[in-house]
Automatic annotation (TrEMBL):
PANTHER family assigned to the protein according to its UniProt record, in alphabetical order: HAD SUPERFAMILY MEMBERS CMAS AND KDSC (PTHR21485), N-ACYLNEURAMINATE CYTIDYLYLTRANSFERASE-RELATED (PTHR21485:SF6)
Species lineage: Bacteria, Pseudomonadati, Pseudomonadota, Gammaproteobacteria, Oceanospirillales
Domain of life: Bacteria
SUPFAM superfamilies (alphabetical): Nucleotide-diphospho-sugar transferases
Pfam families: CTP_transf_3
Keyword Transferase: yes
Organism: Modicisalibacter ilicicola DSM 19980
Matches recorded under InterPro entries: CMP-NeuNAc_synthase (IPR050793), Cytidylyl_trans (IPR003329), Nucleotide-diphossugar_trans (IPR029044)
Protein name from the UniProt record: N-acylneuraminate cytidylyltransferase
Protein backbone atom coordinates (compact mmCIF):
# COMPACT_ATOMS: atom_id res chain seq x y z
CA UNK A 1 0.00 0.00 0.00
CA UNK A 2 1.61 3.26 -1.16
CA UNK A 3 0.62 6.23 0.98
CA UNK A 4 1.61 9.86 0.53
CA UNK A 5 1.21 12.54 3.18
CA UNK A 6 0.85 16.17 2.18
CA UNK A 7 1.17 19.14 4.53
CA UNK A 8 0.19 22.45 2.95
CA UNK A 9 1.27 25.71 4.61
CA UNK A 10 0.92 29.11 2.98
CA UNK A 11 3.24 31.94 3.95
CA UNK A 12 0.45 34.50 4.28
CA UNK A 13 -1.80 34.44 7.35
CA UNK A 14 -3.89 37.42 8.36
CA UNK A 15 -5.35 36.00 11.58
CA UNK A 16 -2.01 34.84 13.05
CA UNK A 17 0.91 36.23 11.01
CA UNK A 18 3.67 33.67 10.42
CA UNK A 19 1.72 31.00 12.31
CA UNK A 20 3.07 27.97 10.44
CA UNK A 21 6.59 28.59 11.75
CA UNK A 22 5.66 30.33 14.97
CA UNK A 23 7.46 28.69 17.94
CA UNK A 24 5.31 26.32 19.97
CA UNK A 25 6.99 24.56 22.88
CA UNK A 26 10.42 24.47 21.34
CA UNK A 27 9.67 23.89 17.67
CA UNK A 28 7.88 25.65 14.79
CA UNK A 29 4.17 24.91 14.60
CA UNK A 30 4.53 22.91 11.39
CA UNK A 31 7.11 20.69 13.10
CA UNK A 32 4.48 19.06 15.31
CA UNK A 33 2.52 17.83 12.30
CA UNK A 34 5.63 16.62 10.48
CA UNK A 35 6.68 14.66 13.56
CA UNK A 36 3.22 13.06 13.88
CA UNK A 37 3.37 11.99 10.24
CA UNK A 38 6.83 10.48 10.78
CA UNK A 39 5.83 8.74 14.02
CA UNK A 40 2.86 7.08 12.33
CA UNK A 41 5.25 5.21 10.00
CA UNK A 42 2.41 5.06 7.47
CA UNK A 43 3.88 7.09 4.65
CA UNK A 44 6.26 6.42 1.80
CA UNK A 45 6.89 10.14 1.52
CA UNK A 46 5.94 13.23 3.55
CA UNK A 47 5.70 16.27 1.28
CA UNK A 48 5.33 19.87 2.42
CA UNK A 49 3.88 22.45 0.05
CA UNK A 50 4.38 26.18 0.52
CA UNK A 51 4.88 29.40 -1.37
CA UNK A 52 7.33 30.46 1.37
CA UNK A 53 10.99 29.48 1.26
CA UNK A 54 11.20 30.14 5.00
CA UNK A 55 8.47 27.58 5.70
CA UNK A 56 10.04 25.04 3.35
CA UNK A 57 13.43 25.46 5.05
CA UNK A 58 11.82 24.96 8.46
CA UNK A 59 9.97 21.88 7.19
CA UNK A 60 13.19 20.37 5.86
CA UNK A 61 14.90 20.92 9.22
CA UNK A 62 11.94 19.22 10.93
CA UNK A 63 12.40 16.10 8.82
CA UNK A 64 9.94 16.34 5.93
CA UNK A 65 11.03 14.20 2.97
CA UNK A 66 10.20 16.51 0.09
CA UNK A 67 9.65 20.25 -0.17
CA UNK A 68 7.28 21.49 -2.90
CA UNK A 69 7.38 25.13 -3.97
CA UNK A 70 3.76 26.07 -4.54
CA UNK A 71 2.95 28.10 -7.67
CA UNK A 72 1.77 31.66 -7.04
CA UNK A 73 -1.67 30.97 -8.50
CA UNK A 74 -2.24 28.25 -5.88
CA UNK A 75 -1.16 30.41 -2.95
CA UNK A 76 -3.56 33.36 -3.10
CA UNK A 77 -6.28 34.13 -0.55
CA UNK A 78 -8.88 32.95 -3.05
CA UNK A 79 -7.18 29.71 -4.11
CA UNK A 80 -8.75 26.52 -2.81
CA UNK A 81 -6.67 24.11 -0.74
CA UNK A 82 -7.66 21.07 -2.82
CA UNK A 83 -5.70 22.39 -5.81
CA UNK A 84 -2.60 22.85 -3.66
CA UNK A 85 -2.96 19.33 -2.26
CA UNK A 86 -3.31 17.89 -5.76
CA UNK A 87 -0.23 19.75 -6.98
CA UNK A 88 1.78 18.56 -3.98
CA UNK A 89 0.62 14.95 -4.49
CA UNK A 90 1.58 14.85 -8.16
CA UNK A 91 4.99 16.41 -7.49
CA UNK A 92 5.64 13.91 -4.70
CA UNK A 93 4.72 11.02 -6.99
CA UNK A 94 7.31 12.21 -9.50
CA UNK A 95 9.99 11.95 -6.83
CA UNK A 96 8.68 8.64 -5.53
CA UNK A 97 8.51 7.21 -9.03
CA UNK A 98 5.14 5.57 -8.46
CA UNK A 99 1.51 6.45 -7.86
CA UNK A 100 0.03 6.40 -4.39
CA UNK A 101 -3.05 4.45 -3.44
CA UNK A 102 -3.89 6.54 -0.38
CA UNK A 103 -3.52 10.30 0.04
CA UNK A 104 -3.50 11.85 3.50
CA UNK A 105 -3.44 15.60 4.09
CA UNK A 106 -2.58 16.85 7.58
CA UNK A 107 -3.28 20.46 8.48
CA UNK A 108 -0.24 22.20 9.92
CA UNK A 109 -2.46 24.34 12.15
CA UNK A 110 -4.04 21.39 13.98
CA UNK A 111 -1.17 20.07 16.14
CA UNK A 112 -3.31 18.57 18.91
CA UNK A 113 -4.18 15.42 16.94
CA UNK A 114 -2.59 12.19 18.10
CA UNK A 115 -0.70 9.74 15.94
CA UNK A 116 -3.46 7.27 16.78
CA UNK A 117 -5.96 9.64 15.14
CA UNK A 118 -4.02 9.50 11.89
CA UNK A 119 -3.76 5.72 12.10
CA UNK A 120 -7.47 5.31 12.83
CA UNK A 121 -8.61 7.65 10.05
CA UNK A 122 -6.46 5.83 7.50
CA UNK A 123 -7.67 2.45 8.77
CA UNK A 124 -11.29 3.58 8.50
CA UNK A 125 -10.84 4.37 4.82
CA UNK A 126 -8.77 1.32 3.97
CA UNK A 127 -11.27 -1.03 5.57
CA UNK A 128 -14.18 0.50 3.67
CA UNK A 129 -15.17 1.12 0.08
CA UNK A 130 -15.57 4.85 0.72
CA UNK A 131 -13.97 7.59 -1.36
CA UNK A 132 -12.59 9.51 1.60
CA UNK A 133 -12.60 10.19 5.32
CA UNK A 134 -12.73 13.56 7.05
CA UNK A 135 -12.40 14.36 10.76
CA UNK A 136 -14.62 16.33 13.09
CA UNK A 137 -15.78 16.86 16.66
CA UNK A 138 -19.33 16.84 18.04
CA UNK A 139 -20.88 20.22 17.27
CA UNK A 140 -21.75 22.59 20.10
CA UNK A 141 -24.74 23.87 18.16
CA UNK A 142 -27.29 21.94 16.13
CA UNK A 143 -28.88 23.35 12.95
CA UNK A 144 -32.02 21.42 13.96
CA UNK A 145 -32.25 22.95 17.44
CA UNK A 146 -30.23 26.09 18.22
CA UNK A 147 -28.30 27.19 15.13
CA UNK A 148 -30.20 29.88 13.25
CA UNK A 149 -29.94 31.77 9.97
CA UNK A 150 -30.82 35.41 9.50
CA UNK A 151 -33.15 36.09 6.57
CA UNK A 152 -34.89 39.14 5.20
CA UNK A 153 -35.47 42.08 7.55
CA UNK A 154 -33.38 40.38 10.23
CA UNK A 155 -35.85 37.55 10.82
CA UNK A 156 -34.16 34.35 12.01
CA UNK A 157 -35.10 30.71 11.59
CA UNK A 158 -33.53 27.34 12.33
CA UNK A 159 -30.93 26.40 9.74
CA UNK A 160 -32.52 22.97 9.18
CA UNK A 161 -35.90 21.54 10.02
CA UNK A 162 -37.44 18.11 10.39
CA UNK A 163 -40.99 16.91 9.88
CA UNK A 164 -41.55 17.25 13.64
CA UNK A 165 -40.18 19.87 16.04
CA UNK A 166 -37.05 18.95 17.97
CA UNK A 167 -37.69 19.73 21.64
CA UNK A 168 -34.37 18.52 22.98
CA UNK A 169 -30.94 18.85 21.39
CA UNK A 170 -30.32 15.18 22.18
CA UNK A 171 -33.19 14.22 19.86
CA UNK A 172 -31.69 16.00 16.84
CA UNK A 173 -29.52 14.15 14.30
CA UNK A 174 -25.84 13.99 15.23
CA UNK A 175 -23.93 16.97 13.88
CA UNK A 176 -20.18 17.57 13.79
CA UNK A 177 -17.83 20.51 13.36
CA UNK A 178 -15.18 19.76 10.77
CA UNK A 179 -11.85 20.26 12.49
CA UNK A 180 -9.68 20.36 9.33
CA UNK A 181 -7.18 18.04 11.02
CA UNK A 182 -6.97 14.93 8.83
CA UNK A 183 -8.22 14.21 5.32
CA UNK A 184 -7.81 10.75 3.78
CA UNK A 185 -8.65 10.03 0.14
CA UNK A 186 -8.50 7.18 -2.29
CA UNK A 187 -5.84 8.66 -4.53
CA UNK A 188 -7.54 8.09 -7.89
CA UNK A 189 -10.88 9.43 -6.64
CA UNK A 190 -9.23 12.66 -5.49
CA UNK A 191 -7.16 13.21 -8.63
CA UNK A 192 -10.22 12.74 -10.82
CA UNK A 193 -12.43 14.95 -8.64
CA UNK A 194 -10.46 16.94 -6.03
CA UNK A 195 -13.19 17.81 -3.53
CA UNK A 196 -13.89 17.14 0.16
CA UNK A 197 -17.39 15.71 -0.01
CA UNK A 198 -18.53 12.75 -2.05
CA UNK A 199 -21.72 10.73 -1.79
CA UNK A 200 -19.96 8.20 0.46
CA UNK A 201 -17.69 10.41 2.60
CA UNK A 202 -17.07 9.00 6.10
CA UNK A 203 -16.20 10.84 9.32
CA UNK A 204 -13.68 9.89 11.98
CA UNK A 205 -14.76 11.46 15.26
CA UNK A 206 -12.24 13.29 17.44
CA UNK A 207 -12.83 15.01 20.79
CA UNK A 208 -13.03 18.78 21.01
CA UNK A 209 -9.77 18.84 23.00
CA UNK A 210 -7.89 17.61 19.90
CA UNK A 211 -9.85 19.59 17.33
CA UNK A 212 -8.65 23.18 17.62
CA UNK A 213 -7.57 24.58 14.25
CA UNK A 214 -5.42 27.69 14.77
CA UNK A 215 -7.06 30.59 12.98
CA UNK A 216 -6.81 33.34 15.62
CA UNK A 217 -4.48 34.41 18.42
CA UNK A 218 -6.97 32.98 20.92
CA UNK A 219 -6.81 29.61 19.14
CA UNK A 220 -3.03 29.68 19.43
CA UNK A 221 -3.29 30.40 23.16
CA UNK A 222 -5.66 27.46 23.65
CA UNK A 223 -3.37 25.11 21.74
CA UNK A 224 -0.35 26.36 23.70
CA UNK A 225 -2.15 25.65 27.00
CA UNK A 226 -3.49 22.22 26.02
CA UNK A 227 -0.18 21.09 24.57
CA UNK A 228 1.61 22.22 27.74
CA UNK A 229 -0.74 20.05 29.80
CA UNK A 230 -0.11 17.07 27.53
CA UNK A 231 3.67 17.50 27.72
CA UNK A 232 3.47 17.61 31.50
CA UNK A 233 1.44 14.41 31.52
CA UNK A 234 -1.64 16.18 32.86
CA UNK A 235 -3.69 15.37 29.79
CA UNK A 236 -3.35 12.19 27.73
CA UNK A 237 -5.29 13.68 24.83
Amino acid sequence: MIRICTICARGGSKGVPGKNIRPLHGRPLIGWTIQQAKDSQLFDIIAVSSDSDVILTAAEKEGADFMVKRPVELASDTAGKASAIQHCLLEAEKVLGKKAEILVDLDATSPLRLVSDIEAAVKLLEQSDASNVITGAPARRSPYFNLVERGKEGVVHLSKSLSSQVLRRQDAPQCFDMNASIYVWQRDVFVNDPVVFYADTLLYEMPESRSIDIDTELDFDFVDMLLARRLKGEDNG
